[in-house]
Amino acid sequence: MAEFIPVPPFDLVVFGATGDLSLRKLFPALLHRFLDGQIPPQSRIIGVARSELDTASFRQLVHESRGKFAPGACVDEAKCSDFLQHIEYVQLDVSAPADQWGALNTALANGQGKVRIFYLSTMPQLFVTVAERLAEAGLAAPDSRIVLEKPIGRDLASSRAVNDGVGRVFSEQNTFRIDHYLGKETVQNLLVLRFANMLIEPVWSRATIDHVQVTVAEEIGVEGRGEYYDKSGALRDMVQNHLLQLLCLVALESPNSMEADAIRTEKLKVLSALRRIGPADAVAKTVRGQYRAGLVNGEAVPGYADEIGRRSDTETFVAIKAEVDNWRWAGVPFYLRTGKRMGARRSEVVVQFKDTPVHMFGPQAGAPDRLVLRLQPDEGVRLWLNVKEPGPGGLRVRAVPLNLSFADAFTLRYPDAYERLLMDVVRGNLSLFMRRDEVDAAWGWADELLAAWDALGGEPHPYASGSNGPTQSALMLDRDGRAWWDPE
User: Fold this and answer.
1) Running DSSP on this structure, what letter comes out for residue 180?
2) Which among 35, 199, 233, 330 has most CB atoms closer than 10 A?
3) Which domains, from first to last, does the chain contain?
4) What is the predicted pLDDT for the residue at 409?
5) Nearest to residue 323, comparing CAs of 311, 338, 336, 334?
6) Which stretches of the chain drop beneath a pLDDT of 50?
């Protein structure tokens, strides 16, 4: 059994503390860790934002957001109140000169011996500015850590500019580029399934796997993020980070250890082997879509252009046939798909095994084995195998799942992604965070595809809200004799 690593005392400064991410995810995550006894009593959480609040009113805001976003978190209100006493607030415009950062300097006084962390839950355009101001104000000690939310840039050039600017203040070892998908239980379980089970690893290759599907489907639209999203699109917002990271974890070779750089080096090898998609291949291997009006959960919702108030060629859906050119995966397509306003909210990895060479029980008996790793909404693992249906009257074969539902198998509550990742930052564990060369490699691949789309021109294919995306996405797999895994 692995040794539990204690959490040292820390000062966590959250820039953009009144924003949606902070109130919806970060503070509820910290509350859960506090309730589980993982936040030492000397630790402080300092919210920083431009809003005209004091510490008391900010604590009230956090309290109200807990009731909205984590209503079942506290059965003991006294403990919730105790958590709020660890929170302070500093009003600050981060673009202001460093000589106006005195209030934050004062708030961080007497923090000797604590881990100091700066979490940038702000617009990416402010990442370098905040890092520079921290250095100018004398707040960025050599061992201070910085956490960057995605997206880091919108292409390779801007990503390098951000990483260069932040890197002038914070070392790579102290820079945590967060992708919350990597903190999910099922994502980490993928490594355990592969490398801790002799039943799995020997068949994890082109010899027995037909193809892999990675789907991240959302029911929501742009939800007030239209200005950002219209400059980004699904490829930059989801594929370049979330989906490529999931692909890497499926495809990587066994790392020499579970040390951060061992894992991240293997992911980099996968990204380096990922075949580029240029104009000659983009039509056959990619699909761009944009949602129109439709029904989601029985409720009428507007189309993308109606939501942002203008016509746009930005894609809200992407499907890609990706290929990894190495010995393990040559000839095995990785089908990536993500979209907004889809029929159901789900994120999953589907590993489709090859069919048996001989159909002993008839051509319609059963189906090829399939491993489904569900990330959300209900995390779990299902392995679909062929078995005999019970009863007399002949031998009938049917595919049924061996089901590991985390909610059913583990009665204790398990931490969500941000809880785990925040504590990993405090512990200094970089395993689940992207290294700079990973980010560069992912953007290099994405930039070539974006350039191919620009060269080809054309509009995204329309799809009705509440559907599984444009028809062209299904046709892309149909040409290969395959189909998307879309369970009812």
Assistant:
1) G
2) 233
3) 10-149 (3.40.50.720), 182-478 (3.30.360.10)
4) 53
5) 334
6) 1-3, 411
Pick from 387, 355, 389: nearest CA to 369 = 355
Coil/strand/helix, residue 230: helix
CA pair distance 16, 243, nearest whole angstrom? 26
Neighbouring CB atoms inside 10 A of 281's CB total: 15
Q: What pLDDT does residue 198 have?
A: 92
* Preceding amide of 401 cis, omega within 30: no
- Residues contacting residue 458 through CB under 8 Å, at least 6 positions apart: none
Q: What angle do CA 251, 252, 254 make, to 5 degrees?
A: 130
- Residue 11 burial by Cβ neighbours in a 10 Å radius (0-12, 13-18, 19+): buried
Task: Give the Cα separation of 239 and 446 in Å (integer).
Answer: 8
Give yes or no: 461 in active site. Answer: no
Report pLDDT for 205: 96
Extract the tokens encoding 342.
Answer: 């889809």
Looking at 32, 63, 211, 242, which residue is catalytic? 242
Enumerate the H helices of 36-96 as residue ranges: 55-69, 77-84
**pLDDT value at residue 2:** 44
Report the amino acid identity of residue 223. E
Report the C-alpha gap between 176 and 434 in whole angstroms. 7
Q: Three-class SS of residue 101? A: coil
Using CA atoms, how far apart are residues 218 and 364, in angstroms rounded to an integer? Answer: 33
Tell me if residue 135 falls in helix, strand or coil.
Answer: helix
Describe the strand order of the beta sheet including 87-91 as a list of residue ranges: 87-91, 44-49, 10-15, 115-120, 145-149, 175-178
List the alpha helices (DSSP H) in 206-298.
Answer: 226-234, 244-251, 260-273, 279-285
* Rounded distance between C-alpha atoms, residue 350 and residue 372, angstroms: 5
pLDDT digits 0-9 by tens, 271-289: 999 999 999 999 999 999 9
Contacts with 81 (C-beta within 8 Å, 6 or more apart), sequence order: none
What is the model's pLDDT at position 100?
Answer: 93
Peptide linkage before 377 cis (omega within 30 of 0): yes
What pLDDT score was predicted for residue 393?
66
Whether 236 and 315 have beta carbons less than 8 Å apart is answered as no
pLDDT in the model for residue 421: 95
Sequence-distant (6+) residues with CB within 8 A of 319 are 286, 287, 289, 335, 336, 337, 469, 472, 473, 476
Q: Using CA atoms, how far apart are residues 169 and 307, in angstroms rounded to an integer?
A: 40
Distances (CA, A) of 291 to 258, 298, 442, 487: 41, 16, 26, 21
